[in-house]
Write a structure and sequence with these properties.
5-stranded mixed sheet; metal-binding; 279 residues; copper; 3-stranded mixed sheet; 38% helix; transport; electron transport; alpha+beta
């Protein structure tokens, strides 16, 4: 009976490992910017900053794994070396200067080693280079609106992006997308009209809170075309889960054509409020 149960447990274990490998492979094979069922890792990074964050996270995971193995080894050694049977006469030592210095200095060195790349990545995120495109994202309960400020002949319009529950991927599509050009520095200014929201785009490695009365900002430079999906990542209310964010990254030519179309599609009056959605 036990043999049969052990055999069944082994089969279930192999099946679980196989399912994990399949889902992991599916995640790696997935189109960038689109989450997949049972995905455990990050979405494919399409900015240098997102890639840095993913690599930094992997290093931290391996570091934590190594520290855990080291501590486990120490525990097993102490159990084996200092148990009552192997060591019937326990030591009366109360202090060991070398050990105390080591367990103080080594963690400090580990933290310094972690802090250096962490501060470097944070500095890159916070210092915004000269922007090629600026977009203002405003959070509402519960949808986003995007304002393209007037720059020469371009911009000067605002539109709303509401969830479209009929499109796939489910609950991650909107009726209008934020459109930006590829390989260009995009600065996103983020605010809110009611409660605290959060504009987050996993493939870009960016997230910033939308706070009423405050203008926060982040930047990204996507290195490939595509449609990328995010969501509000602040618990903002009843329909928090229905505030998707969709960013469409296109070529320079396609972006120029979209700007011309958008100026007529999203007509606006002088004070910047939306007058009508077009045709």
């Amino acid at each position: 009976m036990r043999t049969v149960q052990a055999k069944h447990r082994s089969q279930w274990g192999l099946a679980a490992i196989g399912a994990l490998l399949v889902t992991s492979t599916a995640a790696f094979a997935a189109e960038p910017g689109v989450p997949v069922p049972w995905q455990m890792g990050r979405q494919t990074p399409v900015t240098a900053e997102a890639l840095d964050l993913m690599n930094f996270e992997h290093v931290l995971h391996w570091l934590a794994f190594a520290i855990s193995l080291f501590v486990l080894g120490l525990l097993l050694y102490c159990v084996y070396r200092f148990n009552e049977k192997a060591n019937p006469t326990p030591s009366r030592t109360t202090h060991n200067t070398a050990i105390e210095i080591a367990w103080t200095i080594i963690p400090v060195l580990i933290l310094v080693g972690v802090a250096i790349p962490s501060f470097r990545t944070l500095r890159t995120q916070l210092i915004i280079p000269t922007a090629d495109v600026t977009v203002k994202a405003t959070g509402h309960a519960w949808y986003w609106s995007y304002d393209y400020p007037k720059a020469g002949e371009d911009g000067g319009f605002t539109f709303d992006a509401n969830i479209d529950e009929e499109k796939e991927p489910k609950l991650l599509q909107t009726d209008n997308e934020m459109v930006v050009p590829v390989n260009k520095v995009v600065k996103v200014q983020v605010t809110s009209t009611d409660v605290i929201h959060s504009w987050a785009m996993p493939s870009f490695g960016g997230k910033v809170d939308a706070i009423p009365g405050r203008l926060n900002e982040l930047w990204f430079k996507a290195d490939r075309e595509g449609v990328y999906h995010g969501q509000c990542s602040e618990l903002c209310g009843m329909r928090h889960a229905y505030m998707p964010i969709v960013v469409k990254v296109v070529s320079d030519q396609a972006y120029a054509e979209w700007l011309k179309e958008a100026k007529t599609k999203f007509a606006a009056i002088d004070d910047g409020s939306k007058l009508a959605a077009a045709k």
